[in-house]
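Bench notes, bay 3.
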Amino acid sequence: MALTGRFWFRKTWRGKLILLVEDNRPSWLDGGQLKPRWRDAKLLDFVETALQRLFGLARGGRLNGGH
């Protein structure tokens, strides 16, 4: 199960924002071919290098940490 680096936000009925991440999972009907699917992010997903772009945007839009 590998993250693709794509993410999206959805809003619950109560107004919470949920981070969705896209990952590739093997499909058991197609002989193990990888298929993308969207799922709610877990805490361990934030340490993946694919989501480092999201943290760069949260720090003012700079990916390199420059001034």
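Next record in the batch:
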Amino acid sequence: MKRHCVNIQKFIPFTLLKDPAAAQTPESSGTWRMGGTYGHSWFVDPKRAA
């Protein structure tokens, strides 16, 4: 799985997606992601919230 590592701002312990097209991801701009132990990963996409 390709992680978006282009056009993001990193601030501990989160990453913030700035340009979804450049990152080649369906997530929206402004999505933040947090990694955890044992390879877990969580994200919040504020524009697609339920």
